[in-house]
Design brief:
Length: 101
């Protein structure tokens, strides 16, 4: 019953593919991990290597290594309990009457 309760952090290094686009249509960066690695709440992914700069109008696909640090059971629970509050910090609401200031 206690087998799934991990109190320590586990670190895994895996190859990954990075796709970055910087254009009028899209500004994104996607990382796809290889192997049987599932990223869950509280886990951290660090893509190794230097800074990647993609000039406007270009798209690049790169291969690098990524380090995945799995969250412990208490960390995972904490993220699940408090995640909604942190998400609200990302939102910005504006209510305007349309009147010019």
């Amino acid at each position: 019953m206690m087998q799934g309760l991990k109190l320590g952090r586990e670190t895994i290094t895996v190859p990954c593919t990075i796709e970055i686009e910087h254009s009028w249509e899209s500004l994104h960066a996607h990382v796809e991990l290889e192997g049987d690695v599932t990223v869950e709440a509280g886990d951290e992914v660090h893509v190794q290597g230097g800074e990647i700069v993609v000039p406007y109008g270009e798209r690049r696909t790169l291969r690098r290594m990524a380090t995945v640090t799995k969250a412990s059971a208490p960390e995972r629970l904490w993220v699940k309990l408090t995640g909604d509050f942190e998400f609200m910090e990302l939102l910005e609401f504006s209510f305007s009457s349309g009147e010019k200031l």
